[in-house]
Here is the input.
Amino acid sequence: MSYRETFPLSASVGDVFAALIEPATLTTWLAEHVRVEPRKGGSYKFWGRDVLWASAEDQVDGEILELDAPHSLVIAWRWQGHPCRVSFDLEANGPATNLSIAQEFQTFDPGPTGPGPDMAGSHWRIAIGNLASVLAGRSAALRPDYLACAAPGRQLVELEIEIEAPPERVFQALLDPAQVRIWMQAEAPHVDINQSTYSFGWTRGEAAEPVGPVRLLELVPNRLLVHDWQWTGEVEGVVRWELQPTATGTRLRLLHSRSADVTHALGWSDALFSIRALVEGGLG
Here is the structure.
């Protein structure tokens, strides 16, 4: 099983490669802590509150398998006990760079007990979203605190991201099914304010049980969207989207209450980055 994706970055190949191997830069976008020895056979470890299932150094393992500066980097990474091979390939696109990431799993354990290609995709989209911000001279856009989300009794995911667009535009992305389909990768989203329906169109099992959001609970145009969250075997939760105007656009804040699954923080962080890319990119 594998994950592959290419990211366009507005920086030179040299600058992007440096961001992949320089510890002082890596801690601004990849992880709270890193240990990197930039040579073949050298250590390549990253851990902290912002790395799912890897809050402490003894939970991770990593080694540089190949290093061809500034064109490619290949590492071995053990994630939640599962050995992976991750490659980073850089290609110039004029003054910019296309960064391709491939993560190959030697074992595969889907769901909350272990990572797989879908979770890898979310992890790297969050990380590269932060890298893009850092390369643009800004702070990391969103670094989820998985350790806090997993604290006993907490059951709350709390995240926020700054978007350079007015609240009206961001709110439109939350309500328009065509745009929900893009940022949530949902095949058949359905939104009907009059019927209090808000759904990603997800179902599970032979009975096609609706899961994810189903009911719209509260709506204040351009300020607030609240819906339920239903999943097999989980207590019903509530998800709040709060929009606050800022000097540069909108602060989009998400709160998922009664959430006992830390992977919700991973998925919602990925969604927030996708919303930002959609809105700031002028798509939809």
Residues 117-135 form the longest helix (19 residues).
